[in-house]
Amino acid sequence: MILLEAKPAPIAGERIGKIASSYQYVYTGTSVCDLLAELGEPYKNAIAVVDRNGAICGSIFPQDLVKLLGKPFGRDLLLRQPVDAIMRDAVTFRYDAYIQEVRERISGDLEKGEDAHYILVDKVERFCAHVGSQDILLQAFNAHRRELETAMAIQNRLVPPCRSVQGDRVSIICSAVMAQGIGGDYYHVTEYSPGKWFFCLCDISGKGISAAIITAVLAGFMHNADFSLPFEVLIGELNHIILNTFTLEKYLTGFFARFTVDTGELEYCDMPQHDDISLLLFHFAR
User: Fold this and answer.
1) Gap between the Cα atoms of 243 and 71, Å rounded
2) Can you tell me whether residue 60 is helix, strand or coil?
3) C-alpha angle 280/162/217, rounded to 5°?
């Protein structure tokens, strides 16, 4: 048997060996004719070329076989050669390296969209498996999707899609529909003292997970805030947290208000984006 297959080694955690797609190898000096007879089409996986001790000599890419065989008399020329003549120099990584570490090191290949293949080796540099750039891109996509799903679940708890708040003389209905399921819309409503309400409506800069991070910071502030403080102190504390945390790289605009039921007094702090809302509420409160 010419085409051999390494036994997958057990591995835990986010290691590159978990997404290996091929374990095939041949020994150096093997005839291309013999290899093709066993391989069969279509040629999908990379094949490692190793010496008799398992040390890496090179790698045969499937696209190279397709290209060479497609040339005039390509098959006749290949049949007379050993695999050493068609192999590429191998790029190797440890089988137990972290996926993120490998992804960063091959970021140039990923950006070019090249269909590249890499050999995974054990601690003594013996062949373990192959992993392709497409395998790594697919893993990155799935990891990003899982992160988005987690972020969406968290944000839906922080900012429910719909909420209705009823008091003796107050009725508030809130709704937020995030773009792409996760974003920078935020609202908060609470009766912080009998007959005294605080509510806000905010728009956070950016989109996606970066906006969701600010939403989490804002929600944490609202959860622990003392809404009985003077308004300039309360908003000043929030401003201080946002500035110190995001150093002007991210920001938010918002309408913040306190309403006292018995007196009908509305105290508010607004930013230009919500002028129409604040004037309407102020007129109603009066």
Assistant:
1) 63
2) strand
3) 85
Phi-psi region of 83 (alpha: psi -120 to 50; beta: other; left: phi over 0): alpha
Torsion of CA 20, 26, 27, 33, to 10 degrees: -160
CA–CA separation, 235 vs 268, rounded Å?
A: 10
Prediction pTM value: 0.64
Give pLDDT tens digits for 150-160.
888 888 888 88
Is residue 101 domain-shared with residue 165, that is, in the same domain? no
Domain boundary (140, 168, 202) is at 140
Domain count of the fold of the chain:
2
Statement to judge: residues 16 and 111 lie in one domain: yes
Beta strands at 24-27 and 4-5: parallel, antiparallel or unpaired: antiparallel
Place of tokens 């697919």: 138
Residue 102 has pLDDT above 60, yes or no: yes
Could you report the per-residue pLDDT of 183-206, keeping only the tens digit for each? 778 899 999 999 999 999 988 887
Q: Quickly tell me which residue has 């989109």 as its tokens.
A: 207
